[in-house]
Amino acid sequence: MKKLPFFISIPHGGTETPDEVKERICIGQADILEDGDAFTMDIYDVSADVRQVLKANIARAFVDLNRAEDDLPPENPDGVVKSSTCYSKPIYLPGQEPDDALIETLLTRFHRPYHRAIGETLTRSGTDIVLALDCHSMAALGPDIAPDTGKRRPLFCLGNRHGKTCPMETTHLLADCLRQAFDLEESDVTLNQPFAGGYITRTYGANPVPWIQVEMSRDLFLRQPYFDRETWLIDSSRLRELRSFFQAALQLFFKLLQR
């Protein structure tokens, strides 16, 4: 089967702790998983179906690949090198927060290579990618640092910066395909609420390839009966099921694009 001309970015699916910070942190593995997009590689990595998938092993708690290099604490505790988790828990021991040298090391090892890979994919000679998707998961309820704190979120949110990074017609079409593939109601998939698209979507969208940020609610997999919060064990068959739904949505989307 010919691969679909899509580019999938999964920047927050990693769980690794860099050696440079292991002796400086005060959070555990559960905090690391909760701060990132746990298990999204299992759902969104459809390498067999699409032209390119880019993913990173680094945990979002330590380097957020969906932030600008100069987006740093203390101005933004949820910046490119974070000082606290999205649930306002300090990441580093007192006095052990990353200094300028460590920040530069983390950016050099993790942030810049990811963005260099995006640029190389988009500019590679002969590429025919027609759409890029920056794929994430979102808490079912808005966390402490979010503008929608405590509010129930939809099952999917598609962000295109209100039409700036991808045409609205294309984004609506993808929303319809997600509804059909996942058997969802109209209100289960929203556009630009609560997320209109982060740094990756904003930076690369429509330059020249259209980009959409995809946010899937963790309520689809990080809850009973699929998930045990005490052990962080998850039903792998549920992840495979969600991946198959995502694959079906992309196949339908491309078919309709060609009409």
UniProtKB/TrEMBL annotation:
Keywords: Hydrolase. SUPFAM superfamilies: Zn-dependent exopeptidases (SSF53187). GO terms for molecular function: N-formylglutamate deformylase activity. InterPro entries: N-FG_amidohydro (IPR007709). It is an enzyme of class 3 (hydrolase). Signal peptide: none annotated. It comes from the Bacteria. Its EC number is 3.5.1.68. Pfam families: FGase (PF05013). This is N-formylglutamate amidohydrolase. The lineage of its organism: Bacteria, Bacteria division CSSED10-310.
